Amino acid sequence: MNQSDNKTTRFLLADDHSLIRQGITFLLEDFKIEHELFHASNLQQLLDSVKLNPIDIAIIDAHFPDGNSLSILAELKKMRPEMKILIFTGIDENIYSLRYLNAGADGFLSKMNEEEEIERAIRKMLDSGEYISSVTQALLKSSMKNPNLINPLSSLTERELQIAEMYAEGLGNLEIAGKLDVKQNTVSTIKRRIFDKLEIENLVELIELIKNNQ
Questions:
Q1: Beta bridge mates, 57
Q2: DSSP conformational letter for 8
Q3: What residue segments make up the domains of the chain, in order of their start?
Q4: pLDDT value at residue 108
């Protein structure tokens, strides 16, 4: 995606914090390129905007009040195959960047970066349609030797994975507790730990992850 043809670049800024969107807006204004901005503060607005508008580059947070963007990346790409997606988030790049790239993102940028790196990342998205940081490059090299790095389920313990699979089969807390001969509140605690590790909010997202990674 080269910006030299003077066409208007359509950006979607998707983040539930308006200050983040405002900061990127100021940065884009400094680029002196023809651009149009669309905003979204939750997953539903994000999906609606992509469906209705020919977005060129979507800058998307990982986490929203109504869920995690990891679960909808495939759907976004299906709607707009040419659209480039930059994940711009505060979650740990070492743990999560490969998961997002594997799910369809074209770049992963930590909000912990200095402004210069954020600018460089957006310019790379404009020029080549992708941004791979030095951290993620190292992870990509490691993943060639260890493919499990791109599978989010690999972060779960054997017991956590067992319980996650039971949830995916449609079992509830009481049934799982009975099958494993543990207390129901133990199952609830492990469920919360699974959700925290996988950065998900609900069972629908868990089922989707298990379906896509096994």
A1: 11, 84
A2: P
A3: 3-145, 151-213
A4: 96
The pLDDT tens digits of the residues spanning 102-111 come to: 889 999 999 9
DSSP state of 65: T
Region of poorest pLDDT, from 38-47, 91-100, 145-154: 145-154
> What angle do helix axes 93-103 and 134-145 make, rounded to 10 degrees?
70
SS3 13: strand
CATH class of 151-213: mainly alpha
Rounded to the nearest 5°, which phi and psi values hold at 188?
Answer: -60, -40
The CATH code of domain 3-145 reads 3.40.50.2300
Q: What are the tens digits of pLDDT across the range 174-184? A: 999 999 999 99
Give the separation between CA 17 and CA 40, rounded to whole angstroms.
10
Rounded CA-CA distance 25/37 in Å is 8
